[in-house]
Amino acid sequence: YKNQNNWLISKKVIFIKFMNKKIYTWGSVFAERNYTVADLKKAKGNKKLVQTTASTLEEALAVNSANYDMVLCKSNNIKTVRSGAPNTFLTATIDLANFPSEKDVLGEAFRAMKEGADQIYTARGPHIVEMLSKEEIPVMCHLGLVPRKSAWKGGLRAVGRNAEEAKKLFDDFKAMENAGAFSVEAEVIHEQVMSEICKRTSLLVSSLGSGLSGDIIYLFQNDICGEDEKQFRHARAFGNIFNLKEKIKAERVSSLKAFKDAVLNKSFPNEKEIVKISDNELNKFIEMISK
Q1: CA 120, CA 135: separation in Å to the nearest integer?
Q2: What whole-number distance in Å separates Cα of residue 171 and Cα of residue 166?
Q3: Which helix (H) or strand (E) holds 218?
Q4: Could you give the percent of the chain with pLDDT greater than 70?
């Protein structure tokens, strides 16, 4: 290579490619993954992993370029996200409200795995987790603050605020373990409680606002990139896309107004922006249509 930097970049690419594992997907396709389920089981307690979300091709490409360990998307976005992050361990979320029956959930889980998911996420109870795990589908459950079920907690708040609630949460972890869950999204759980539970659970813990004791530290991509004006307490913006969006909005309106003004004052189009026929051909044309 021409210089050391190029060599280092090329070496990194080769290393990443070498680390990918070959798999055969539920869709009967040979593929590569940065992590398999077996790899993640070995990583528990030994390596801190990073996970975020993606919904669009642009977001998936960004996840891939940033070399994230794991990505999470809705089950209807798998093809889009896979096209941008082909080798990243992908968790597909099965929407709570759109797949109400066991048959609905199982059918969508099989479809998602066929399209390239590596794990299925569900906010449903242990009976659903057990049903999926019996089919050898890696399942991520959801404990702590489950926003769509927040009414049972008295609203959107942290979970584990007293010993009784923390014990109930620990029991829920054990119930999910017994049901066959592989991992858990642990959302907004008091840090000390989360730390103690992590020591006592076999589940791969994805911490969303629950401190650093989790095996995976997880944050939504829109929060990481600062795409919204306001953020939850547990999130931090590492960028300011919201500000850029506001500038784009202002620039769009300004451009539209400027175009309108230019049309009304007859400065658009100008001589450089139009094409003209020769005077000779124009005269011929006028003569033709005047007969």
Answers
A1: 12
A2: 9
A3: strand 216-218
A4: 94
Is the Cβ–Cβ distance between 94 and 122 less than 8 Å? yes
| CA pair distance 8, 10, nearest whole angstrom | 5
For residue 116, list its beta bridge partners.
Answer: none
Compute and round to an integer the Cα radius of gyration of the chain: 27
Angle between helices 126-133 and 163-179 (to 10 degrees): 30
Alpha carbons within 13 angstroms on the beta-carbon side of residue 285 total 7
Could you tell me the two tokens for 170?
A: 């620990």
pLDDT band for 4, please (50, 70, 90 cuts): very low
Beta strands (DSSP E) in 42-182 are 49-53, 70-74, 89-93, 119-121, 139-144
Are the C-beta atoms of 195 and 213 separated by less than 8 Å?
yes
Helical residues (DSSP H) of 118-202, grouped into ranges: 126-133, 163-179, 191-198
Tell me the residue type at 269: P
The b-or-e profile of 30-52 (16+ CB within 10 A means b, else e) is ebebbbbbeebeebbeeeebebb
> At 290, which helix (H) or strand (E)?
helix 279-290
3 has pLDDT over 80: no
Residue 236 in tokens:
């931090």
| pLDDT exceeds cutoff 60 at 165 | yes
Residues making up the chain, counted from first to last = 291
